[in-house]
Amino acid sequence: MSIRRRTPVTEQTVASSGPQPPNPEPPTEEFSLRPPKRGLILSVLALFFIPFFYMLFVYYPIENDLRRSISIGVAMSLGGLVITVRLIPVAARYLLRRNLFGYDINKRGTSQGSVKVPETLGIVTAIVFLVVAIVLQQCNLTADSEWLVEYNAALACICFMTLLGFVDDVLDIPWRVKLVLPTFASLPLLMAYAGHTSIIIPKPLVPYVGLSVLDLGLIYKVYMIMLVVFCTNSINIHAGLNGLEVGQTVVISFAVLIHNLMQIGASTDFDYKQAHAFSIYIVLPLLTTSLGLLAFNWYPSSVFVGDTYTYFAGMSLAVVGILGHFSETLLLFFLPQVLNFLYSCPQLFHFVPCPRHRLPRFDPQTGLLTGTNDMNLVNLFLRLFGRCTEKALCIRLLIFQA
Ligand code: UD1
Ligand code: MG
């Protein structure tokens, strides 16, 4: 396959019908893709990993064993990044051949708006992630590790969710069905979960409740399902701008990574540290493989991520929060998604009409986006802070996330 540098995918290069140029190449050979944004990858890596390594090797007195395991995780995850970047152009060609593409709605009215953009490239990220996570497990967990059951259950959930996301991308499932898909995918974790099911009662309430810790039992598992459903769908509905789905995941993953390291550094309890190390082994490959996808999905997108990616990313973050025992903190990192979800509720539950796409209005003359009355953060930001380009809006939303 030829990847032509700086040549955008155009309608002509991918169309199978319409007027053909003289001596047309076979359709699969004609597909061309912009090169990945290597500068973006390198800047984000430097921005993230310099403070990360400083905390790991200098700031916190962490045991050498754990430092070694985490470093192995970093090395393998960087390998995953390289593989993702190499595989995406190949997969994009195959997906396009099977008619899995979308039109870039925020470029409608320009030549870029009629380009078939390969969709569902999240499948590459998810597969590379799973491979890295499984190999990492072989390196860092022994065969008799008590963590193995939960680690495998977590991977089964992520794998199941990816499958359902892919089914959604191929079959275009109705919205009400989409909402409940993550419930099924969370089953492996629910069955395997052997962690605590209790919550700590805030001190001022202890005299009234008569307990300092309340065991929720089955209700805790219902809470876990709700968390999974929320994480997966909330990333999926905070979307529609080039780079936003992946960008938010990268920011949240980094926050989770640093949070885990801080918890490990501040604790002396072995189990507690293990729980957070466990989170790191999942979130590291999530971060790097997502970065590989971002290099193609950043404005102007040469590929779309599909619901395969949003569901995969949401599920990965949810299992990390549940098994690392910091789901409340995780919700704090999901603050923009919580706000977006609450603001979206009237449309999601059809009290207010909800169109298929709740995207801004694009003005081809100026190249700027204008907010519509649709109830989501993307439109709210445009209404509050004025019209801007798609890229500027995505950056504003990611800064808000950070
Ligand atoms: C969710 C949102 C929908 C939003 C869509 C965009 C809700 C209830 N649903 O729907 O409002 O429009 O995500 O992803 O909030 N697309 C672009 N530019 C991008 C990314 C996607 O134009 O940067 C378009 C493409 O045509 C692509 C399509 O969105 O094919 C993908 O939409 P899909 O992920 O299937 O939408 P939903 O997740 O159902
Ligand atoms: Mg989507």
UniProtKB/TrEMBL annotation:
Pfam families: Glycos_transf_4. GO terms for biological process: dolichol-linked oligosaccharide biosynthetic process. The chain crosses the membrane at residues 40-60, 72-96, 117-136, 148-167, 179-201, 207-231, 243-266, 278-299, 311-335. Pathway: Protein modification; protein glycosylation. It is a multi-pass membrane protein. One of its GO terms (molecular function) is UDP-N-acetylglucosamine-dolichyl-phosphate N-acetylglucosaminephosphotransferase activity. Belongs to the glycosyltransferase 4 family. UDP-N-acetylglucosamine--dolichyl-phosphate N-acetylglucosaminephosphotransferase that operates in the biosynthetic pathway of dolichol-linked oligosaccharides, the glycan precursors employed in protein asparagine (N)-glycosylation. The assembly of dolichol-linked oligosaccharides begins on the cytosolic side of the endoplasmic reticulum membrane and finishes in its lumen. The sequential addition of sugars to dolichol pyrophosphate produces dolichol-linked oligosaccharides containing fourteen sugars, including two GlcNAcs, nine mannoses and three glucoses. This is UDP-N-acetylglucosamine--dolichyl-phosphate N-acetylglucosaminephosphotransferase. It comes from Carex littledalei.
